[in-house]
Amino acid sequence: MSGTAPHALNHIELVHRPMERDLARRLFEMLGCRPVDRGGTWFTSFIDADGADWSNNVLYASEVTPEQWAFEQALATGAPERSEYLDRLHREPQRSCHFGLRLADEATFDATCARVRQAGVDGGELAGRIRVAAVFRPGDPGAVAETMVQAFVWTDIVAAGLLTLGQHIELQWQLT
Q: Tens digit of pLDDT for each residue in 101-144?
């Protein structure tokens, strides 16, 4: 195990909506990852665009199962509790179930946020499906540390849970 940390993030398993495999790959590209699709059930996205380890530091994505999709469609009804829950997540994305991607520097962080903002409103396939939900800089209300800047990206293109609730992905630039 020379050069490999004994405990590290292995992977995150995500699902995408039926027929949105290409859209999920484009989302990962926008976030600075490198998706590779070799066919089959899953495709792999390397978190580090130069990565070559197919088993570690990767995101896997596959189409949601028919059973989960049917369940989600049943949940999508306008129950007041669902609306209250989503309102809270929109106000405080740092309190949602999410995962974070560390970005190399401020320029990469700013460029990635700009791409997400543009894609969310440009009228293309990602319009209304992705947005920068919040940015927290040191000293801002809701910021968790003085040593990082966080941007929370919301999307319903992929999720490590229920697609109908959406997924927050934290983009993080560590100052130190």
A: 999 999 999 999 999 999 999 888 999 999 999 999 999 998 98
